[in-house]
Design goal:
This protein has 2 domains: 2-210, no CATH class; 217-432, Glycoside hydrolase/deacetylase (TIM Barrel, Alpha-Beta Barrel), CATH 3.20.20. Strands 1, 2, 3, 4, 5, 6, 7, 8 and 11 form a 9-stranded mixed sheet that branches. It has a two-stranded parallel sheet with strand order 9-10. The two termini are 54 Å apart. The protein contains 21 helices and 11 strands. It is 45% helix and 11% strand. With 435 residues, it is an alpha/beta fold. It has helices at 2-17, 47-57, 65-72, 82-91, 103-108, 119-128, 135-150, 159-164, 179-188, 196-213, 228-233, 235-240, 257-265, 280-287, 289-296, 298-306, 323-329, 369-377, 403-415, 423-427, 429-432; strands at 217-223, 245-249, 269-272, 313-315, 335-340, 350-351, 356-361, 383-389, 391-392, 400-401, 419-420. Bound molecules: zinc ion. Zinc ion is lined by residues 223-224, 273, 277, 317. The site of zinc ion has 5 residues, from loops.
Length: 435
């Protein structure tokens, strides 16, 4: 009380001496914490003059630069009624960073959740939010912001809690969670003490990365040992568009190893597609997962690596798998590709950070250039369009793509600036960026 009184005297002297000619400065009288009516403070009647002085400075000035230092020292406070303080708090929502609300303000306005320990978080909220809530809703919101700050583990940071504090950019317009935004947020933030402004910043970083930093990618893959010659014959076509692909090899022991090596040496990726193209689901259910690995994975993987091939990627024959094969196969490869070839297959990109992806069939009976082009056009940064087929050139069945159609895809993707990626590159898309 003694200090506050002397602070007021200094303020009065400044005012009288004309040092207060800067109209931005607000002189405020001391007030008891939580009391709404400032005129009831014990200023021994000397506040009469001062009150007329401060009337001039008024509320218009209360949010100016100079008032920051005054507000920061909450003892300087007041002359505002409780209603005026509340009005100032409400109007501080979404104001720029020059706005600073003092602990005293929240005490006067009876915001029970705001304390000295979380004041900076609350100030960060005011400077960051774009919501303009009414009093009751704002009080509730700030309590939720404080709750968030007091959490001590990321595992407690549920989407619902983030919804309660009104984080922008985390939910789609239909109210559904943007899972990727959420995942990136969790990656970016510290393990505990979640500050609203930092969370909002992390979500905004994600959207910035997605819209203008992360590359849009395409991975084209060909499957089966039987496709080898047709692929080898068309390497120049890929060079023409500076394009790369992944070739998933089966029956390695029966095909020309030098051609496989050629393909890798020309800048493409060699993957694994089974020793004899076994059906992983049927074979593992009948013989056990370990037997499937021993019979259809390791012998060929060892042989390919002995020959100096870099093999980090696997594609399921027939696109067939089980949860158990998924779990086991990840011990041998960093990337696993499934396969979608149903008649209604929808071409679209998927998150590039996923170790298990789905190649969308562009075999002859599924090929639809318009839809592929649309998928390319709507790709977002950080997404990869995985297109899969088999032989290049007409065969006796439908599992091929004509060179003409393949070139149309390559040309379009190239013209649209997509990055052709090996699976390891697709996944490491964040490292691919220069920012
Ligand atoms: Zn196959």
């Amino acid at each position: 009380m003694k200090y506050r009184y002397s602070a007021w005297i200094v303020a009065l002297l400044l005012s009288v001496s004309g040092c207060n000619s800067d109209s931005k400065t607000v002189i405020e009288l001391p007030v008891e914490g939580g009391q709404g009516d400032n005129t009831s403070t014990d200023n021994n009647g000397t506040n009469t003059d001062n009150s007329s002085d401060t009337d001039n400075s008024d509320k218009d000035n209360s949010n100016t630069d100079d008032s920051d230092s005054d507000n920061a020292n909450s003892n300087n406070h007041v002359k505002e009624t409780k209603e005026e303080v509340i009005k100032r708090i409400l109007s501080a929502q979404g104001a720029d960073s020059t706005t600073s609300l003092a602990l005293k303000d929240f005490e006067i306005a009876e915001f029970g959740c705001v304390t000295a320990a979380n004041l900076s978080v609350i100030q960060g909220y005011f400077n960051t939010t774009q919501d303009e809530l009414q009093l009751a809703a704002l009080k509730h919101r700030l309590c939720k912001v404080v709750e968030l700050f007091e959490l001590d583990s990321k595992s407690l940071l549920t989407p619902n809690r983030l919804k309660e504090v009104g984080l922008r950019g985390l939910f789609f317009e239909d109210g559904k969670l943007d899972q990727w935004a959420y995942d990136e947020l969790i990656l970016a933030i510290p393990e505990s003490h979640f500050e609203y402004a930092a969370l909002q910043g992390a979500v905004e970083d994600f959207h910035h990365n997605q819209s203008s930093v992360w590359p849009k990618q395409i991975n084209i893959s060909f499957d089966d040992g039987g496709a080898l010659n047709s692929i080898h014959d068309h390497l120049d076509l890929f060079d023409k568009y500076n394009a790369t692909f992944t070739y998933y090899v089966s029956h390695y022991s029966t095909i020309d190893h030098s051609k496989v090596a050629d393909i890798e040496n020309r800048g493409h990726e060699i993957g694994h597609h089974g020793v004899i193209h076994r059906h992983a689901k049927i074979y593992s259910e009948e013989n056990g997962v370990q037997k499937w690995i021993a019979d259809d994975i390791t012998p060929q993987l060892d042989a390919m690596r002995r020959d100096g091939l870099t093999v980090t990627s696997y594609a399921y024959p027939f696109g067939a798998y089980t949860k158990e094969t998924d779990r086991e196969i990840k011990k041998y490869f960093t990337h696993v590709r499934k396969f979608a070839s149903w008649s209604s297959v929808i071409y679209r990109g998927e998150r590039s950070d996923r170790p298990i992806t789905t190649g969308l069939s562009m075999d002859s009976h599924r090929f639809d250039l318009d839809k592929i082009q649309n998928a390319i056009d709507t790709l977002k940064g950080g997404e990869t369009l995985y297109l899969a087929t088999h032989v290049i050139g007409k065969t006796g069945n439908e599992w091929y793509i004509t060179p003409e159609n393949l070139e149309k895809v390559l040309a379009y993707a190239s013209a649209k600036g997509l990055k052709f990626c090996h699976t390891s590159e697709c996944m490491n898309f964040k490292g691919n960026t220069t920012n």
